[in-house]
Specification:
alpha/beta, 35 strands, about 25% strand
């Protein structure tokens, strides 16, 4: 089951690349820890809501941004501490038992919605009862949370001695577009520490072109087909184990493609990161594909974040820039948020799909297990389990949706676990009904 595998990866040890390591220990400050710490606890705050629909099906720390997930990046700053996880109730069944157990006293709590900086490890020097805050959010504290606090809600500062977090500690993540815009820089930062950058352990056809090959890593089992081009002059390109690049495809860095991902013939990728076993074709620009997601046909995907097990039909087009060049506004829950960004594309929840020729307006958000089709632009906010398009949306029955998810996952040799099924059932009950759209349950 794909979620548990990701969680196990951060429980066991920091992940770099298969068979690789970083050029230095990722403990960014010198000196011994002044107080013994019993564990590292990753927790979710209110960003778990503002990162929906991506965070509906995973803890916030499992979101990809660059070569690693947020949790893997945080874990790398504290590699020797036992790990505990404090996630929302509907996700707890998906956590590794060893990490979901009782949290000991004297733990260091780190907000899971962070992009760590070089100063994050200094949080280990926080005195008991002290906390770092950034932009009104607690990003780290030493001790125990206030009585009655629940993961996925704002962590009160009451009872904590608060300090402004050092600017070098971390970037606090609140929205999906925060990750999309940070992703190219994250790839450059992480790839810069790879000892193997410049090594080509895969197969490169004699007619393929590598520009700035010293800035390219090809993992074992990877293959670059005839007349393909990898251009790393604008940033590093890291192809993990088993990545396949088709003929005439172009990959412009910075880019990271996860294990066994495929780049289809004539594809054009720029500033892209993907998790394992994604398939990419057409034009993809400044976008994140979480895992097991297909965008393998013609069409444009820009400044977008796709969850896991998504499929974009041929000719799907996403707008990422308004014609009047004004900042994009995005519906987040009940609030229309001004992103302050000119470029924001599609945010698509897990198990969602688009039909051939689908089009999406700038800043569209579609939830989990949507099936979108028909002519014209659908609404810019589409609740989970919605089926339809511009003319009409209906709420699709859970059991039928689950049958489709099972069929899709079986094509990759996988099946949803009992915990994942219950998680999806919770989303169907508690998120899709909020939309007020007609139901086909009866």
């Amino acid at each position: 089951m794909y979620q548990v595998r990701l969680l196990r990866r951060i429980v066991q040890r920091p992940r770099y690349l298969p068979g690789d390591e970083y050029s230095g220990q990722i403990i960014f400050i010198g000196g011994a820890m002044p107080k013994p710490l019993s564990a590292l606890v990753l927790f979710e705050d209110e960003a778990a809501l503002t990162l929906e629909p991506l965070s509906l099906t995973r803890p916030v720390w499992d979101l990809q941004c660059g070569i690693r997930t947020l949790g893997e990046k945080i874990r790398a700053a504290f590699p020797d501490l036992p790990l505990r996880l404090a996630a929302r109730d509907h996700l707890r069944g998906m956590l590794e038992p060893e990490a979901a157990g009782e949290i000991p006293a004297g733990a260091l709590w780190i907000n899971g919605a962070l992009l760590p900086g070089e100063g994050l490890a200094a949080a280990a020097q926080l005195e008991p009862g002290s906390a770092w805050v950034r932009e009104g959010r607690v990003i780290a504290f030493h001790g125990s949370p206030p009585t009655g606090w629940q993961p996925g809600t704002q962590l009160p500062e009451s009872g904590l001695h608060t300090l402004e977090a050092p600017s070098s500690a971390a970037q606090a993540v609140r929205y999906a577009w925060d990750l999309v815009h940070a992703m190219p820089g994250e790839i450059e930062r992480e790839a810069g520490r790879l000892r193997r950058l410049g090594r080509h352990e895969g197969e490169i056809h004699s007619t393929a072109v590598l520009l700035a090959p010293e800035n390219v890593y090809l993992g074992p089992g990877s293959r670059v087909a005839p007349l393909a081009m990898i251009d790393a002059t604008g940033g590093p390109v890291v192809l993990d184990d088993g990545v396949q690049v088709g003929p005439h495809a172009v990959i412009e860095g910075p880019a990271y493609l996860g294990p066994k991902s495929q780049v289809k013939p004539q594809a054009h990728l720029h500033a892209v990161c993907s998790g394992p076993e994604c398939r990419m074709g057409g034009e993809v620009n400044t976008s994140i594909l979480q895992s097991y997601t297909n965008k393998q046909h013609g069409g444009f995907l820009g400044h977008s974040f796709l969850g896991s097990w998504c499929n974009l039909g041929s000719g799907t087009e996403t707008s990422n820039l308004k014609n009047n060049y004004s900042p994009v506004k995005v519906q987040v829950g009940d609030e229309l948020v001004d992103t302050g960004k000119l470029f924001v594309g599609l945010t698509l929840g897990d198990h969602s799909k688009t039909a051939i020729g689908s089009v999406f307006n700038t800043g569209t958000v579609a939830g989990v297990a949507c099936n979108l089709y028909g002519a014209g632009f659908p609404p810019r906010y589409i609740p989970s389990f919605s089926w339809g398009g511009a003319e009409k949306l209906v709420r699709y029955p859970f059991n039928r949706t689950l049958d489709i998810a099972r069929a899709v996952m079986a094509r990759r040799g996988r099946q949803p676990s009992d915990a994942e099924i219950e998680m999806l059932r919770w989303i169907h009950r508690h998120r899709s009904q909020m939309a007020g759209i007609p139901s086909t349950d009866k």
